Amino acid sequence: MTKFKTTKAAALLFICALFTAAIVSCNKDFARVLPDKEYTDSVDVFYGKRKVLYIITDGARGASVNAANVPNIKSLLPKSIYSWVALNDPNSKNDARNWADMLTGVKSDDHGVTSNTFEGNNLERYKVLFERIKEVNPTIKIASFSASNLFKEKLTAGTDISEAYATDADVKTAVVNNLQSDTATFVVAHFNDIDDAGAQYGYDNSFPQYKAAIETFDGYVGEIVNAVKARQNYANEDWMIVIASSGGGEFAIPQNQNDNTVFSNTTANTFTIYSALKYSQRVISKPFTGNRYLGRTVRMQNEAVRAEIDTADIFNLGGDTSKFTIELKVKKNGERFTWPSILGKRREWSSGHPSVGWVIYLEEKYWYFELRGAKEVNGNYRQCRGRDLEPNQWKTLSVKSEIRGGRRYIRTYTNGQFDNEIDITDAGDLDNNDKLKLGYLNGTGHGSPDVYLSDIRFFKTTLPDATIQNYACQTTIDEGHPYYSFLVGYWPGTDGQGDLIRDFGPQARDFKLIGNYKWEDFNDLICPPSAETLAQFVPQTTDIPSQIFNWFRIASQQSWDLSGRVWLDQ
C-alpha cells in the first residue's frame, strides 16, 4: 500500500469537498489508501486487535463443497467474500506446488516449487508469508498445525509454533486447544483427508466417501470457529477467517457442464472464503466465458470420413497478384497430430510436398497453411504457421494473401489474432484441376485427422486485419459483412442430415460426404477467453497472502513481487 504525503491527502480531501455528488465514494477510496498502521492504537481500541485463522484443505473441489451438507462453512457466508469457482494454478499436479502458491503469494515460475521434493525451489527469494510478517512485525505470534510433515518441514519458516499430526482429527484438536489457551495472532490449520478420499474413491459427491470427508471437515470448521468465538478476550479481537482449498481433483464432469474453459478443469476448481464481522456478503461467481455455438455437424475422422467438391476451379489461389481469404472453424479431438490435412486443393498430400496447390493441416499442437507453386524456386513449397489449438475448443483459422509493395504475402490468424507471415512472391501459380477436399487428403507420410469443421468461408479478396478480428467469433455470415459480395463459397457445415455439406455462397458448390459419416450434435463455447484472462475475475490461491497482509495492515513491498490481489466486499 503506497503511503500518501500530507499535501496529497489534503488535496484529495479538497477535491472531495468540491464535488459533493461524489463525497461518499471519494471518502471511501481515501480511507482505503491511507496507511492503517499509522493509526494502529486507535483502530485496535475501536475494532479490536486483528487476528487471522487460515484453514487450508487439500483436494476439495469448490463445486463439491458447495453442494455438500456444510452448515458450519455456510454459516460464515453472510459476513464473507467468497467463491465456489476459485482457482489454483491449472498446471499444478502436486500438493507442494499448491501450498507454495498459497503461502508465498507467487506462482511456481517464481517460487520454484514444482514437485513434492522441493528441488530447485526459490523460497529464499520468494519467502513464505510467515517470514514476511515477522520481518515487518516480529511481535505477531504465528502457530501452524498440519496433517503433513512435508508442509511443516518445508513451508512454515517464521512460525513460532509448527506441529504436524497423523490425522485431521488430531489437527483439529490441536487448533482448538491452541485457540483456547494461546495468544497467537495468526493460526494456520492444514487438513488433507478430503484429498485422501478423492484419490481413493473419486473427487465428486457422487462418491459417498468423498462427500463424507467434506462434511467431516465442515464439522472440524464448526468446532474451530466456535473455539474462536469462545475465547475469553474475543470481544476485543477482530478476526478474519480464511478457508480455502489448495486444489480440486480429476473428475469427468457431465458434458453438458463442460464449457472447455479453466472452470471445467476439476483439478483447478477450489473455493475461497474470507470471513470477517466487518465484511458484507459478496459472492464471486463464474464470469462470462463466451458465446454458445451449437448445431449438428460431421466428425472428420481418419481416412474413412471426408468430403469433396469435384468442380472446384473457383477455389484456385492464382498467381502472383491474386487475392484470397480462407476462414474456417476447427475443433480437434486430440492434442497432437502428425500432419493431417483438414482442408486443401491438391492432387495429393505426401512427403516431399509434391503437386501444385495448397493445404491447411495440423502439426503437433499447432496448424499450418502450406502451398506449392508452379515455379521451381528454393524447394518451391512454403509454410506459414498458426498457433497452438487447444483440444475440444472451436477455433477460427484464417489465411489470406496480401499484396504490399509489389510482393505477395501469406498471413495466418487464430481467432482473429495475427500469427505469422511469409513472402510467396516467387512461388508461382497455385492453380490446379484437383478437387477441393475437406478432412483427409490422400497421400503418404502423414497421419489422419480427427476434427469437427464448420463455418467455412472463401473470399476472393484480401480481408483487412480488423475485419478478420471483428468477425472471428461470429458463427454465421450475412449481407451485413463488409466483404460479403466477395464471398465465393460459404459452408456452415451444420446441415444436420443428408450426404451434402451445402454451399450457401453464389456458386452453390456443395461438398459431397464420403464414407461412414454421422451427423453429431454440438453445443460449445466459441472464442472463450484464456485461462489467464478468466482467472483474473475470481479468487486464486496466490491471492491469499495479499489478503492476509492487508488484514494485518502490512504494506506489500515491491521487492516481494506478489502475484495476488486483495478482494473487497463491494
Automatic annotation (TrEMBL):
Residue ranges occupied by any DUF4983 domain in the UniProt entry: 480-568
Keyword presence, Signal: yes
Name of the protein in question: DUF4983 domain-containing protein
Signal peptide, first to last residue: 1-21
Upper lineage: Bacteria, Pseudomonadati, Bacteroidota, Sphingobacteriia, Sphingobacteriales
InterPro entries the UniProt entry points to: Alkaline_phosphatase_core_sf, ConA-like_dom_sf, DUF4983, Phosphodiest/P_Trfase
The entry's keywords: Signal
